[in-house]
Amino acid sequence: MEQDFTEQQIEAARVLFAGPCDFLLGVAGLEQLPDPDRAEIAFAGRSNVGKSSLVNALTGRKTLARTSNTPGRTQQLNFFNLGDVLNIVDMPGYGYAKVSKTQIADWTKLIFQYLRGRPNLRCVFVLIDARHGIKDSDLELMEMLDEAAVSYRVVLTKTDKLKTQEREKIEQQTLEALKKRAAAFPAVTLTSAEKGAGIPELRAVIAGYAL
Q1: 17 inside domain
Q2: Does 158 map to a domain?
Q3: In angstroms, rounded to a whole number, what is the distance separating the alpha carbons of residues 135 and 124?
């Protein structure tokens, strides 16, 4: 984890994520975006990166993951209200080969327009499967974020599936890759939704954007 937190910060974040977290709406076009009246963070990642599991671990509930997996919402930006202090935006998984080129083009256009024009977007959390590392589709998203000048943090998921030496190696490889990215936070967050590793600290990182 890239920074240390006090027990008070960890507890405050736990309380925030244990509180209300309600689905707001699914957005398929910019005209549908909710008012930018509170801070916003977003989760992005390849299909099957473990995004749903991580969100479940963070919130202690299945509301976010279950709603965003509802058929018909997969190509939308799904907005959730966390305690009236922070919007969480669940982006559709990318890198899924069976999606048509037209859908990919529409998704890319929507995402870039959202990233470039959302004044209250504080950070995008880019989820990377620790077993596979950064893929070409992840680099494409990072290019988009760099171009849009949107700050982002890389979160390695499923780190419990690796031995300590492998985990340290993928962390260093990821850090090296981030040195070349203009908008990337220069540290990596290691998590395991299954084991709970890194979850309290990641909550505290996210809660910091609600201020």
Answers
A1: yes
A2: yes
A3: 17
Residues of the domain holding 193? 7-208
User: What pLDDT, on the 0 to 100 scale, is given for residue 125?
Assistant: 98
Query: Is residue 2 assigned to a domain?
Result: no
Q: Which pLDDT score is estimated for 206?
A: 97
How many Å from the N-terminal Cα to the C-terminal Cα in the chain?
21
Written as one letter, the residue type at 52 is: S
Burial category of 208 from C-beta neighbours within 10 Å (exposed 0-12, middle 13-18, buried 19 and up): middle
Strands laid side by side in the 121-129 sheet: 21-27, 77-82, 86-90, 39-45, 121-129, 152-157, 184-190
Cβ 94 vs Cβ 137: under 8 Å: yes
78 domain-assigned = yes
Q: At residue 80, does pLDDT exceed 80? A: yes
Hey, how many other C-beta atoms are within 10 angstroms of the C-beta on 74? 17
Count of structural domains within the chain:
1
**pLDDT for 118-171, tens place per residue?**
999 999 999 999 999 999 989 999 999 999 999 999 999 999 999 999 999 999
pTM > 0.90: yes or no: yes
The CATH number linked to 193 is 3.40.50.300
In the numeric block, which tokens belong to residue 37? 């009246």
Are 199 and 58 in contact by the 8 Å Cβ rule? The answer is: yes
**CA–CA dist 108, 112 (Å, integer):** 6
* Confidence (pLDDT) at 72: 41
Provide the token pair at 154. 């890389």
